[in-house]
From TrEMBL:
The keyword DNA damage applies. Involved in DNA repair and RecF pathway recombination. HAMAP family: RecO. Keywords: DNA damage, DNA recombination, DNA repair. It comes from Ligilactobacillus ruminis. Belongs to the RecO family. Residues 11-82 form the DNA replication/recombination mediator RecO N-terminal domain. This is DNA repair protein RecO. The keyword DNA damage applies.
Length: 254
């Protein structure tokens, strides 16, 4: 067990829970160490000085001691901000928690994956916080994060013959798009409509940092959600607690 003291890193508070009487375990997605759990002492004591930097959905620059295994420790935070809208809105909260849950399942404590993905997760949460449609931002992240789980669907052309001509359908068995000629190969293809396929293609190549606006019809939103739920259930098969909550919430909403 090695404790690396005086480490500076970017972080996003992803979850927290009470620990013992006055302490707290705070999970932070860091850009250098992946997801680490920090033991924060004396949270409920008067005069506790780290309160503002460990609020849910806080993000910014932190200083702390990182433990290779086991709990890490926080010293201070600098330039700490909070995704305010996400913090205040239970719906946005659920989407953000799900994105962080996916990131945690795929990245864990892998430093190089953390470095690669931190900016993108931060950008997704920033866009949701700024009022971009949370279900669409979540779908974009779902498509792009498939690679974290070893799923690399071919979305450029037919995965059998490389034909780039529409129409396409999506086949889990063939790992991506099928052109019309090859539809008979897979009776279990997802039978997606052209618009849904178009957005899956767009999302896989989209740079969130350059997203200015995006409008998707309600019907297509539903189809995208169904398609990605199917792909995640069948091909990824991980359990993200926030997903269940998100599903229940959407049932109430619609
Ligand atoms: Zn083909």
């Amino acid at each position: 067990m090695v404790l690396h003291q005086g480490q500076e890193f970017l972080g996003i508070v992803s979850s927290r829970r009470d620990y013992k009487e006055r302490d707290m375990l705070v999970k932070i997605f860091t850009d250098r160490f992946g997801f680490k759990t920090f033991y924060v002492r004396g949270v409920k004591k008067r005069g506790f000085r780290l309160g503002a930097i460990i609020l849910p959905f806080s993000h910014g620059r932190y200083l702390g001691s990182i433990n290779d295994q086991g709990l890490s420790y926080l010293n201070l935070g600098k330039e700490i901000d909070q995704y305010q809208q996400i913090f205040q809105d239970i719906f946005l909260n659920a989407y953000a928690s799900y994105i962080l849950g996916l990131a945690e399942a795929g990245i864990k404590e892998d430093s190089s994956l953390a470095a690669k993905w931190f900016g993108q997760v931060d950008q997704a949460l920033t866009l949701i916080d700024q009022g971009f449609e949370p279900s669409i931002i979540t779908n974009i992240m779902e498509v792009q994060m498939l690679t974290l789980f070893g799923v690399r669907p071919e979305l450029r052309y037919c995965s059998v013959c490389q034909n780039p001509q529409r129409p396409f359908d999506y086949s889990e068995n063939y790992g991506g798009l099928l052109c019309q000629k090859h539809w008979p190969l897979d009776p279990y293809r997802l039978h997606l409509d052209a618009r849904t396929i178009y957005y899956l293609q767009l999302f896989s190549a989209l740079d969130l940092k350059r997203l200015n606006s995006i409008k998707v019809k309600d019907e297509t939103k539903q189809h995208l959600k169904q398609a990605l739920d199917t792909i995640y259930n069948d091909q990824v098969g991980i359990y993200i607690p926030a997903k269940k909550f998100l599903q229940e919430m959407n049932e109430i909403k619609f």
